[in-house]
């Protein structure tokens, strides 16, 4: 394999891994507070549709990103109302949120299906100006790509270095004890979902406004679910999520590069490579460290007497 | 603390409500989206005030995806709209986003119940259910886009893309600097392989060094995968991109954002996604033939025919060239289009070798038209796996 091919795979991995990373980070924050959001796919779809609709109407991708963030927050608050206030089952509520997202996003996005939108501008990674164009074009990214790793570090800092993060993690481990230590589990869970909604919105915004630059129904194509799997892969840790998102999207890029290299292996088989890798990672990780999953993940907090 | 948070929530809610309200004002006024097989009539029942006369024919048309996808479905819907304009007494019932066989069957039955006597089924998956229904409803005529089944009341129609793909190959082969052309394909299907082969033969007719590099997305409309695939091909050094997926918008937009030439397919409107690096493209313009078919049903002269027609017959069109395409390349491309349509150039005339160098079509022979839909080998010069 040539240097260009390897750099090409790295570039593809960074580019398409960005939205996965944001989505995974969002799910990490939620799950650290004890909430599994299987509706992530639907949340991302609504954010994406709103982002494209606003960008197309205003011609301003930054307003589109803002709108996508707000849509993500709104969807997550709705989900939060179900599982926190109404104390509904998290898995069922998540699936319901997902299907709601399918329908709502289709409705919002109906008029912008074949529309070209103003994409986020791209900047060359500083210091690479001297490279030949074939190489330098590999490292022109938009602002959301450059922000991805800093955001992951920020999420890590929030979760592991602040009082707020301690509270969120405490609620995810044992809500009763968190309550006994003077925290309000319900509010903390709402706050965690709010942060998760912002991150899901960022994921959707990058996917549509920067990456595909178009909208169509169900365009996330299962990436929300991949993010849920990546949370387990990264053991609920924001920094490991960077590696998870990069490895998964590098596998996608690798199988495409293998196809393009004319490897005479069925492309149907190559296409499953990233998912096979995911399964292998889950097998390798599974069960070895029980304590890595938040203890009351998926459990509804019914209040403390 | 809590009241403060509550205020923040309320503010967020208000802002986002406002933003979504500005973003999608058209949504409430739009007709109910027939995302699912409609339990109720898709089109509103004819109001006596709107159509004073009885329609001379009720025509049903169904599409696999959204009508405004700037791709295949838009091209099909555009042809229907042209027909409805040409024959004003026709009442057109349309249903979009009907990708699956079960949904197509229900939708078509519904159209027949509303009085449709001619049905245009435009997606690949519509052929089987339409053929089944044609056995039950003998008084309804079914036309499928691109199918191959035939009966007394079932026939099909389509453009003839191989010739125009050859001409697109001539354009691509003339424009490339790296001699690597990228082809984003949905699935390794017979027709897709034929398009890739015709494109490659065209490219190598003007540039024997040219190679077509093929990568599959395994979906007709997964935009993220399309962007992944396009970027991947560009990262391998490809400098002209084309595709066979439902909507060319993502592939062409991605190529444009990377400063790479693109060639469109399906609908002519794809050009809007590449104002700079657009070479040219082809699209279906079947309005004339749809009008003719519909008129023949009204006149009761309709006969089941296997209808295929190219650029010369107005069933396909070449998009305007982009700003970076030199005049000589334009001339060469148009000449290739003319020569293939006139029969001066026969695209699949031997000798043609496959990827391994084995002769697939011998000297003096031609790959027959009815074989083109089931080709399972790539011509020499294609990089990628055909199965």
Structure overview:
The complex is a heterodimer of chains A (305) and B (387). Chain A is mostly helical and 305 residues long. Chain A is built from 13 helices and two strands, in the order ααααβαβαααααααα. Chain A is globular and about 65 Å long. Chain B is an alpha/beta fold and 387 residues long. Helix content of chain B is 37%, strand content 18%. In chain B, the strands form three sheets. In chain B, strands 12-10-9-8-6-7-15 form a seven-stranded mixed sheet, with helices on both faces. Mean pLDDT of chain B is 87; it is low at 17-51. The chains are: A mainly alpha (305), B alpha/beta (387). Chains A and B meet through helix 1, helix 2, helix 3, helix 4 and helix 9 of A and helix 1, strand 7, helix 7 and helix 8 of B.
Nutshell version of this structure?
The complex is a heterodimer of chains A (305) and B (387). Chain A is an all-alpha fold and 305 residues long.
Helices and strands in order:
The complex is a heterodimer of chains A (305) and B (387).
Chain A: H1 3-32, H2 40-58, H3 61-85, H4 90-109, E1 122-124, H5 133-136, E2 140-142, H6 143-161, H7 163-173, H8 175-180, H9 185-212, H10 223-233, H11 238-260, H12 267-271, H13 273-285
Antiparallel strand pairs in A: 1-2
Chain B: H1 2-23, E1 57-62, H2 72-86, E2 90-95, H3 101-113, E3 118-121, H4 127-136, E4 141-145, E5 154-159, H5 161-175, E6 180-185, H6 190-206, E7 211-216, H7 223-235, E8 240-244, H8 249-257, E9 261-264, E10 278-284, H9 287-298, E11 306-309, E12 316-318, H10 327-342, E13 352-353, E14 359-361, E15 382-383
Parallel strand pairs in B: 1-2, 1-3, 3-4, 4-5, 5-11, 6-7, 6-8, 7-15, 8-9, 9-10
Antiparallel strand pairs in B: 10-12, 13-14
List keywords for this structure.
heterodimer; A: 305 residues; mainly alpha; ABC transporter involved in vitamin B12 uptake, BtuC; two-stranded antiparallel sheet; 13 helices; 70% helix; B: 387 residues; alpha/beta; Rossmann fold; 2 domains; 7-stranded mixed β-sheet; 6-stranded parallel β-sheet; 10 helices
